[in-house]
Amino acid sequence: MADADIKKGLAGVVVDTTAISKVNPETNSLLYRGYPVQELAATQPFEAVAFLLWSGELPDAAQLEAFQKSERALRPLDERTVALLDLIPLDAHPMDVVRTVVSQLGTFDETLNRPGGWTDPDLDLGRALYLFAQLPTIVAAVQRRRRGLEPIAPRDDLDYSANFLWMTFGELPSEAAIDVFRISMVLYAEHSFNASTFTARVIASTTSDLYSAVVGAIGALKGPLHGGANEAVMHIFDEIGSAENVVPWLDDALAKKKKIMGFGHRVYKNGDSRVPTMKAALDRLIAESGRTDLGELYDALEKEFVARKGIYPNLDYPSGPAYNILGFETEVFTPLFIAARVTGWTAHIMEQAASNALIRPLSAYNGVDERHVS
Ligand code: CMC
């Protein structure tokens, strides 16, 4: 096979159809089930977006109320999860902690033991809702634990976004801050066949169970070339320090051929469709918090890097500093991405199961020729 026939990294390869989202780099647009993501970010609670991704339609008022009621009932942590958290080293990376806890949640689900239980679509919808409801409680507990604080119980009177922040900080921030957080969740929810979603689909294609597919997806998301970039952006900001250091820092980083985290995208080559919405949200937080230092650094690095390389920011670039201003620890940024993307992952797992073909590509062998032991 000629090297040219090998699609390394599956770049440019269309492997299946999906009705969940459409990424169009030419028009710089992203649609969830037909709706522009910017419109959803401007108008919808995150619960409505989860409902949309799973069912194909936005909920009406009664459906949303019923959905939120079910989600709220599934929020509290199981005591066995609290016990598991106590066993995990305090300095373990939050991505590893969340991955481990999600794996444990799979062991609580007795319906997996039923004949055909692994792949029953109705059960999978319930499992998706369970993970969606549990992840904020888990992520909030993980951040608090790192700070030596006890977990805070969920509140039934708060929606997804407000409750997430309540459980993390023990107080409610401003309406604007809650709204920025909600927007970030909507923007992170779904993005077609990205690496973690594809990982989930590969696992689902073996007719494995939904929890296993989500655990695999979390592993894929952790890498800084994918979801880990939002954490890595903040490390870069900390390293640079302030706007006037951008030029020498960039000179050095590019001379060492370093990747600048939060820039570039496999699909979008002229800018990420989600960035303007998230940048506007970040600007609201900067104005409210007075963190103009962060805004100046953000603008200076973007201007300088785009001028030199013509490579544009992706969603992780504005979301990293936004999570910093909201008060999240840097190592918890990518777990926030898990909490959002679990909606897209589980929608894809169910879509894969509904018209399954085992995902099993080929490789071209380039090792030593056949040889024998004696
Ligand atoms: N910094 C420096 N150079 C870059 C960057 C970057 N961020 N992104 C691309 N390039 C260069 C790369 O070095 C290569 O140059 P050359 O042709 O001279 O070797 C060229 O651009 C093509 O890059 P590539 O890595 O082959 O392209 P790709 O389509 O495989 O990369 C990417 C996409 C996201 C892996 C890459 O842009 C990258 O590593 N970015 C930094 C990490 C990041 O921000 N990831 C988040 C991705 S989007 C949201 C998400 O998934 O969370």
UniProtKB/TrEMBL annotation:
Reactions performed catalytically: oxaloacetate + acetyl-CoA + H2O = citrate + CoA + H(+)
Q: Which UniProt keywords apply?
A: Acyltransferase, Transferase, Tricarboxylic acid cycle
Which SUPFAM superfamilies does the UniProt entry name for this protein?
Citrate synthase
Which GO molecular-function terms appear in the entry?
Answer: citrate synthase activity
Alphabetical list of Pfam families matching this protein: Citrate_synt
UniProt key word Coiled coil: no
Q: Which residues form the active site?
A: H265, D316
Name of the protein: Citrate synthase
The pathway where this protein functions is:
Carbohydrate metabolism; tricarboxylic acid cycle
Q: Give the UniProt entry's GO cellular component terms.
A: cytosol
The UniProt similarity line reads: Belongs to the citrate synthase family.
User: Which domain of life does the protein's organism represent?
Assistant: Bacteria
Q: Name one GO biological process term.
A: tricarboxylic acid cycle
